[in-house]
Each structure stands twice: as structure tokens, then as C-alpha cells.
Amino acid sequence: MIKLKPGEKIIMTKRRHKFVLIAELFMVGLILFSIFLATLYFSIFCLTWPDIATTHYRQLSDFNPNNLIIFLLSLGAIACWLVGFALFSYYYLDLWVVTDRRTIHTELKSFFSRMESSVYHDKIQDVSVDIHGILPTFLNYGEVQIQTAGGFRQFTCKQIPDPRDMKDCLLTSKQKYEDKDKNNQV
Fold first, then answer.
1. What's the rounded Cα separation, in Å, for the pair 64 and 117?
2. Cα(153)–Cα(167) distance, rounded to whole angstroms?
3. What digits encode the pLDDT tens for the residues 139-149?
4. Cα separation, 73 vs 35, whole angstroms
5. DSSP 42
6. Cβ neighbour number for residue 182 with a 10 Å cutoff
7. Is residue 138 a part of any domain in this protein?
């Protein structure tokens, strides 16, 4: 949970573009579908051990190899389900928040490890937008790189939708923050 300073207001929140999540989950779904088809195949068509195996190992004739194959495919399906859950968790819990004073980035590193970093707008020296590729250009997502004077040096927001809008919002809030700071000093 992000804790704001007293009087701090949220201007914008961003997550990665939904297309990135859909593309990653599509691959997991494709693997799950192929596992489903393989399970269906081995459920319908019964495999038997080769005669040479059953003559040397008589206990194999009592064991159906389809059961082992279906069990292994089920383990693969559970693994795919866990990967899909992890991808969604990373998508949902990676968040960029622009307030009137600072930009906050929370990132899920692993299920039990989160990173939260922030940069105050008076420390921002430069903001640039980086969009590479056909799909990012057509779907309007990319990176916003914030160059700072502090310890981070570079603060990168990856795969976010409408990065130019975030850049404009950052520069506007930086200007308002600096103007407000100048007025308080006078």
C-alpha cells in the first residue's frame, strides 16, 4: 500500500499496457490448450507397453502408461496455472503513481518481495519517452525514462500505455511543484 504525505494528491496512476499481459497469458493459454488436447488423446486412446518390456518386467503389464502420462500432463497444467497467476500478479502489483510532489513506483520482485521507490519532482532533470517496435507504436505503449539528480540517476517506467501523456503530466507537475516551492520561499 502506498502511503502519501499529508496534503499530497494523486494525479495519475499507470500499470503496464494490457496488451503485454494478454500476450503473455496467451502463450500460457496456448500451452494449457495443448496439454488439454494431449490429455484428451491419452484418455481416449489406450497405450500399452511394448512386448519386450512386459516379458522382462512382468509387473509392467498391470500398470497402464496412460495414467502416468495423464498425471504428468496434469502437473504441467498446474505449473501453467501458477505461471499465469504469477504473470497477472506482476501486472497488477507493478504500479506507477504520479502525485503533485513525487513519482512513486511499486514493483513486485517475487511473491514475498516488493520494491517501492519514489523520486521528488524537484530532483527530475529530464523526462524522455522511448517507443520501439510496430505493436508499441500502433498500440501506443512504451517507456518513460526520468533522469534524476539524486541517487537513482534513472527511473524507468516500462511498457506503460500513453507514455507521452505521462511525460506531459510529469513535466506539468514538476513545474507546479517548483512554482509552489518558489512561492513558499518568497
1. 55
2. 17
3. 999 999 988 87
4. 6
5. H
6. 9
7. no
Q: Distance between CA atoms of 29 and 89, rounded to whole angstroms?
A: 16
69: pLDDT strictly greater than 60? yes
Structural domains of the chain, count: 1
Burial of 124 (0-12, 13-18, 19+ CB in 10 A): buried
Rounded mean pLDDT, 95-116: 87
Model pLDDT, residue 63: 66
The whole-angstrom separation of Cα 99 and Cα 119 is: 10
Tell me which long-range contacts 115-119 makes (C-beta under 8 A, separation of at least 24).
116/2, 117/152, 117/155, 119/146, 119/148, 119/150, 119/152, 119/155
The pTM (predicted TM-score) of the whole model is: 0.75
Residue 39 lies in a domain: yes
- Residue 185 inside a domain? The answer is no
**pLDDT tens per residue across span 13-26:** 999 999 999 999 99
Cα–Cα dist 12/129, whole Å? 17
Structural domain including 67 reads 22-90
Q: Would 63 be classed as within a structural domain?
A: yes
Per-residue pLDDT tens over the stretch 33-51: 999 998 888 777 766 656 6
